[in-house]
Amino acid sequence: MVYVGIYGGLLIGLLGWYFGRVAARKKRGLDEMNTHIWSKARSTSWYFTAAAIYLLMTLEVTGMKLNLIPALSILLLVHLASWAIAGTFFSLNFISPDSPNNVVILSAIIGATFLLIFAIISVLTGNWKFLLTAIPPVIMITLISIAQARLKKHANPK
Description:
Layout: H1 2-26, H2 32-61, H3 68-95, H4 101-125, H5 129-132, H6 135-155
């Protein structure tokens, strides 16, 4: 039964990717800008994956034991989710580059992801202090997004 989830998810993902590419080709969406946006997104997702690797190593050093499959699943989820989020963000910036809402949306997604990851770790370990470690990154992301939105608004008054 485990194999159904692993290989079924892979099959559904590959089918979605293939049919999405076919639909994009029909609408002339596979141009050099699309290639640039998604290669930049893939590059950005490796930074998030590296951060997740360091987080998993930190958890191992602090005494939390993770098995191989859950650790690899976490890394795969972080990599693919950050690739999708970064690609969406770069696409939004291409469509409307002067909109301050893009930064706020991306910051909200990243902040919610931090909270979700640390909440899951807190539940798995039974230690609520892990949830407290999510507060500084979320505050920092919020402050950066507010500052950038204000800078963009003042730089491009309409």
